[in-house]
Amino acid sequence: MTNTYSNKLQNIVEDFQITFGHPAESTPTLPTLERFTNRKGWGSIEEAVEQLYSISDDKADFINAVTKLHEYLDKAMAKQLGKPLITDRTEKLVALADGLGDELWFLLGDCVESGIDIQPIIEIIKESNDSKLFTDENGDKYAKQDENGKIMKSDSFFAPESRIKVEIQRQINNSLTK
């Protein structure tokens, strides 16, 4: 692990980014709009929809929740369009850092509101991601990508859900004994 950051979780993700050939900057750097838009789609948006589905009681509830997300997205876009566009690079980085910090604050707040200790969950997800790696004849680990750049999974890959289930049950059991 490179330990560039003061946050352990961020260092875990940095290790993944480097191992899998994704960007990992050590100084504040503006990502391209295309890359960042894709990451929000793959991550924040897709995961938010998945989370809403996981807590919905039926498909109608789920559809209503996603429709509400569309409304929030439209409202947020209108709010930003009412502001002047930031043109200074440093000011762009300040605004990006503020937004990332706010987003992380809300994500951690979601963990708190759900009573989920996220650190062990992140560690399980890291182990699962690392299990995608292939091993060469020297024992060195490496990532493989298909022709579209999607990370391929090695034969040793394991999905994290069963381990997360064990961890969640441990957290439930620990809370019952307090």
Automatic annotation (TrEMBL):
Gene3D superfamilies per record: putative ntp pyrophosphohydrolase like domain (1.10.3420.10)
Superkingdom of origin: Bacteria
InterPro entries, A to Z: NTP_PyroPHydrolase-like_dom_sf (IPR023292), PRib-ATP_PPHydrolase-like (IPR021130)
Pfam families (UniProt xref): PRA-PH (PF01503)
UniProt name for this protein: HAD family hydrolase
UniProt lineage: Bacteria, Bacillati, Bacillota, Bacilli, Bacillales
